[in-house]
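Can you make up a polypeptide sequence alongside its tokenized fold?
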Amino acid sequence: MKQNRPNWDEYFMVIAKICSSRSTCLSRPTGAVIVLDKQILATGYNGAMPGSDHCIDDGECFRRRANIPDVDKYNFCRATHAEANALAQAARYGISVEGAVIYTTLAPCYVCLKLLATARISEIYYEHHYESQNFERDNFWKQAISDAGIKLTRLSVSTPVMEKIKEHLECPTSIRRLAATKS
């Protein structure tokens, strides 16, 4: 019987999805995993800076409560994005990410894209489009990715793999499934 074993890209995207469960953002919980040669270098999720209040604990988005429009959202959002947190984690521990790949549950914003390009990330796998309402911004962003030489790939984890992952999350995974062999 064929098993629905995730391929490497699905495997790392599932881990990014699990990282997003640590997010403190009420709007777009996002997770990221930086990988080099099939080894995880760093992970991140979007959330408030250390010592700041978390929107998830307040029960409302700080920016939206202050009626800040989307055009100024980065200046008033408490959260550091998942990609930036993953890069910061790598930097904090002296881990080079040059040539690495990032798996993120949301396509990076332009600020994160600049950080990823500067850190020399070579490829971005993302699950969901950023869904900007600004098409000029989107075209500029796409050109910036091309100029930076970063490969961008949308990746969705297949339904059979998600079902297998769900089974592993909901049920004991390390109990004996086959009878012990006799000596």
User: Anything to note?
Assistant: The helical segments are 8-20, 55-58, 62-65, 73-76, 82-92, 110-118, 135-148, 159-170. The first helix runs from residue 8 to 20. The first strand starts at residue 31 and ends at 36. DSSP finds eight helices and seven strands in the chain.
